Amino acid sequence: MKTSQLLLKLKGCMEKYKPKMRGNGKKDSLNQTMSRYHLENFNEIVNSSFNGLDEEVDEEKLKDLQNRIDYYFSLYAPDDEDFKEFIKAISIYLTFIAKKPLHPPGIVFSNGEGVYEKEGVYYCTGKRIFMNDKLSLCKYCVCKGID
Fold first, then answer.
1. Separation CA 24–CA 86 (nearest Å)
2. Measured between alpha carbons, how far is residue 78 from residues 69, 70, 81, 82, 107 in Å?
3. What phi and psi values does residue 101 have, to the nearest 5 degrees?
4. Residues 30-43: pLDDT tens digits?
5. R_g (Cα) of the chain, nearest Å
């Protein structure tokens, strides 16, 4: 599958979420930071037309990313199928099309680790820790780890 085909598929998937998307402009919690990042990427998908390099998407990696998200939701939100599918679409977009981090640059996690951007390169100070989690999504995040 080409990235242009994948983007069209994701745009179709996002249509059902349009009524639910509202930004509140607050900057307080980790959840609010993630929500703003998801809204930003939702809008990118919905308003996009493909203008990048039309690369081939590795179907095995795509399926593995989806399985990892399914695993995460089976542990932390097993009854939230709608949100899982939304996060899956956003994560696929970030990984295979936008090539942006799965967490927003500037975020600081509860353990003090975080994501930042320097000269167009993304870094995650926690990647070395989070990669050890079973079926970690970090495997597909563009962030470089810091040792």
1. 19
2. 11, 9, 7, 11, 25
3. -60, 155
4. 678 888 999 999 99
5. 15
